[in-house]
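Lecture 7 notes. Example A: sequence first, then its structure tokens.
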Amino acid sequence: MEPNQKQFLRKQMKHLFEQSATSEERARISDIISYNIMEQSFFCTALCIMVYCPLSDEVDIMPVIKKIIADGKKLIVPKTDVENHTIIPCLVVNPEKDLSSGYSGILEPKAVRPVSYGQIDVILVPGRVFDRSGCRIGRGVGCYDRFLRNIPGALKVGVAFDFQLVDRIEPAEHDICMDMLITEKTILKNENFEKTTIHKKN
């Protein structure tokens, strides 16, 4: 997909977001999406889950984060590596104490306690736009694409509001597609889902 087409979709999605619902309604829908995530078999099986700390225009997955801690699973939170335009997966024990505002106002780990890529079973990934085959458009920096290409075995789960879905995105060579997509109305798996490490454990 051409850069100007991606930018058009980002602007279109920003407009849809502003028109879609009140903050209270988005919070309610976020709770439904979080429930959908926690009901999946991969969530029960996974021992180490990487989340994201949501911005105001992303699905709020705080219920998922709390459940990961309550279940005794390893919680991994990304820290932006600005110099290399990627992210560092860091272990977080107490989100209330271990996180502070970082790159672009995103909550990030205060201390860098990196974990090896091979430990991560599942990665929950935000985005601006997704299509039904798992292709994703992010914010344009490319941090997630650079990071995700190094973890082919982890289950990559796109998390979005249903209005963020479009029929088709033409991926660029460097774009990484999701193995699974979860919204308040839709749960989709692509052909790579069965190749992920977590699927083989189920």
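Example B, a different protein, same format:
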Amino acid sequence: MVFFPKFEALINRANIVFSGGGIEDLLAIYLLNNHSFPYEEADLLMIDDTVFRGFIDSDDYKAIQESYKDSYFWDKLIEHFVGDLLTDGMFEYGTNQVTDNQLALVQMALQPRGHRANLVDAFSEFLHKPELKISARVVLAHKNTAFVFHLGPSSDREARVQELGLRCLVVRGRLPDVQIVVGISGDKLGPSEVGYSHDIVYVDIPEWNDDFEEQVTRIQKELGYFENASWAKKPENA
């Protein structure tokens, strides 16, 4: 959320006097003005304590809450993964050991509310529309973090995690503005012989080199992962 940097910039250039309220009133002003403060020339602000109370009773607030409704599934997904980590139910790509690396979850948690809603919409469509006939989907999210959604059976989690990791590597190589890729894999909807599980992969490659490029070219040629994607800055399917 960019509120705090903008709030810090505001208090550095202007004196703010709260008349019985507090930072929540400034937050309401920020949200009501398209995520900005309309006080570029002001050096003194007096904030009434009714701003936030009026905001939460407004149609604008109700509309924001409605638009964010789907995003709360992302919160539940993070909680689910945390539970898996605490109960040794998640494996680390490359080692097949229980992971203590929470960087992927940090990236999930860093996604602002609006981006979470977009991620959930993309994930839900991918999961509930088998007629799309795709096994993975890429979504470019906040601060050029890419997410790869993938479906594979829990009966062979090792192979599922390996494929997810390779797909994440392809995404890192084919989206030049992306450094971090988070992969999320789970079962298709329907019956499962061994139950249901999720796996997560974290790829962070600051510098791309010829060796990585050679790997990605070979992966796409031999396995076809995202081979036909156009790699525009929007959700891509393969």
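Note on Example B: The chain has a mean pLDDT of 83. Residues 3-66 form one domain.
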